[in-house]
Every structure is written in structure tokens, then in C-alpha cells.
Amino acid sequence: MEISLLPIVNAEGRELAVSENLDFSAKNEVGVSFPEPLSFTGKFVNTGNGIELTGSGEVDAEFTCDRCGEVFEDKITFELEEWFIKASEETNGDPDTIVLEGDMVDLGEIVYRNLFMNLPMKVLCKEDCKGLCAKCGANLNHGECSCDKREVNPAFADLDKLL
User: Nearest CA to 37 among 46, 24, 51?
Assistant: First the structure.
């Protein structure tokens, strides 16, 4: 979604409000998908030192649990703040500053990058997820498996194989 900043790029103090539904359903990432559009509301403000984008987003996401592999849904909300400067200005080595080439910005790419920075490092379907059985692979959230759970002293492991 390309946004033109032409109305505010040379007018200090001017604002440009944005409210968009961004579709990320075609993006294929491991462990997460976005079947519904992301709702984003924000504004671009020319501060005189550059253009600031602030806003917030909300989306329903489908995750794959890191312990049991089940797919579950969760709502993600996040805040966003980005700085833009003209290509002719100095960034002073600030990695958080985006250099404007022309007067167009890709709002979808900026929001998508910020969305991923706000995803949890480890996702669980529930806080007390039991995961999978290490022997048979059964999902322990659905009940106990029939694997032998007794502890065998390693010194007697060869004898245990005879039983």
C-alpha cells in the first residue's frame, strides 16, 4: 500500500491521517499466518526535522504452538513509531531512520516489519501446554499416552531390554 507524503513533505506541522486494512494473507512465514486483514490507524506528521509516523495495529493471527504443534488463534496489537527524512539530509548513523526516496512510502511494508517485531519469540497454545511425548509423539494436552514412563537406572539398561 503506497502512501503519498506530497501534501506534508514540505509543510512543517502538517498531518496526514491514515486508516487502512492491510492484507497479509499471502505472506508465508513459518509458524504464523494472518487470515484476516490487519487494521491500522495512524498519522504522518511533518515535525520540521523529518516526518514521524505513529499509529497502532490489530490483527487476528494463526500460530503453530512451539510445544505441541497445534494451530491456534490469538489477537496481536501493537504500537508503531517510525522516522523518515529526505534523502538529501544526514541520518547521523541512526538505524531507526528511514530515508525517503521521493514522496511515496510503502505503508504495508512498514507495518509488516513492525508487526513481526511485536510477535512473541516463543508461542504456546496455552500457558501450561504439555507438549508432545518424547517417545511416541502423542499430544499430551489431549490425554496421557500409553508409553512406559518408569525410570530405568542406566546401569541396568541392558537388563531392561531383556524384559
Answer: 24
Contact 57, 80 (CB under 8 A): yes
Task: Locate the DSSP E strands across 47-152.
Answer: 51-64, 71-86, 97-100, 104-106
The CA distance from 43 to 129, in Å, is 40
Closest CA to 119 of 1, 30, 35, 23: 30
Q: What is the distance between the alpha carbons of residues 122 and 74, in angstroms, rounded to a whole number? A: 13
- Condensed to tens digits (0 to 9), the pLDDT of residues 87-117 reads 666 656 666 677 777 788 999 999 999 998 8
Considering the chain, what percentage of its residues have pLDDT values greater than 70? 93
Across the chain, mean pLDDT equals 87
- Per-residue pLDDT, 93: 61
Residue in this structure with the C-alpha cell 506534508, named with its chain if needed: 8
SS3 150: coil
Q: Of all residues in the chain, what percent are helix, strand and coil, respectively (each to 5)?
A: 15, 40, 50
pLDDT band at 127 (very low <50, low <70, confident <90, very high): very high
- Identity of residue 130: K
